Amino acid sequence: MSKLPPLAAIRAFEAAARLQNFSRAAEELGLTQAAVSYQIRQLETRLGRSLFVREKGRVRLSETGQRLLPAISGAFTAMGDAFAALTSDDAEVLTISAAITFGGTWLSARIGRFQLRYPDLAVRLLMSNDLVDFDAANVDVAIRTGAGRWPGLRADFLFRSHVTPICSPAFRDTNGIERPADLLHVERLAPNDPWWAGWFAAAGIGTPPPRRQGIELDSQLQEAIAAQGGFGIALMTPLFWRPELDSGRLVRPFETLYQPGMANFLVHPENRVGVRKIERFREWLHEEMAMDRQLVPEPLWEPLA
Questions:
Q1: Which CDD domains does this UniProt record tie to the protein (predicted)?
Q2: How far, CA to CA in Å, does 19 sit from each of 36, 54, 200, 273?
């Protein structure tokens, strides 16, 4: 047998205690004052304690009532939040958080197709390199880079992180770039990024490049602008820059790719599995990724071990 008193009695108590008035509680609940009084007396009988002190036509909470009210009010608030969350899950806005580079290149170029497929859903794209806090931010899904293990989140593998040197054709030709070792002597954007050492090692140059002064930028979006202007060569993800590479505005002098042991994932809280707008975006994202499989080597589509 449940130890919880009837919900109707609990609801009557919460309203009367919060409003400090049986008549107003009855109006809020759509009951008569007599019905509210009856429910509260039933609750008091069950508890064997008075919840209100009745005096001169007025009521005030007893010590027992004062102890109960915060917990009861908190429980009703939590239930209200739960039902509101269900309503929110069906809301017509999908909020996506993505890193500046991924969001500003690959995703921005394709998100219109998602909108056309699901015209009933509006899309809000937030771009930041900071990890989104799902508990504090009004975000449905995020594209996150890492090892794929985040407690409380479902992580769907998308593709492995990878970079290669990319520059303008004029920069390549002016600097006579023909071999990987030539990059040790030209202007490299973010020259002290440890990924440069990783790329040189992958290209067969085991000696780490010496530290040097250079241009440090926040994202590949900024590096692409600098590279197209001829100001240096940058480590960039070719998957994000297919239009520029195909048109010749940018070139990749070497086929060597560096994989830093990380991958890109679609993540969202585990307790939101099955939410329509999230599941539709997840399915669409995997379909779009499948269309790009031929653009990069097959191992980059294999999940991390």
A1: PBP2_GcdR_TrpI_HvrB_AmpR_like (cd08432)
A2: 13, 15, 72, 39
- Residue 299: pLDDT above 80? yes
What pLDDT is attached to residue 134? 86
pLDDT in tens, 86-109: 555 556 899 999 999 999 999 999
- For tokens 């009988």, what's the residue? 45
For domain 7-85, say whether CATH 3.40.50.2000 is its number: no
Residue pLDDT, tens place only, 196-245: 999 999 999 988 787 888 888 889 999 999 999 999 999 999 999 999 99
Which CATH code is given to the segment(s) 93-157+262-301? Answer: 3.40.190.10
**CA torsion angle for 271, 274, 276, 280 (degrees, to 10)?**
110
pLDDT in tens, 49-91: 899 988 877 888 999 988 989 899 888 888 876 666 655 555 6
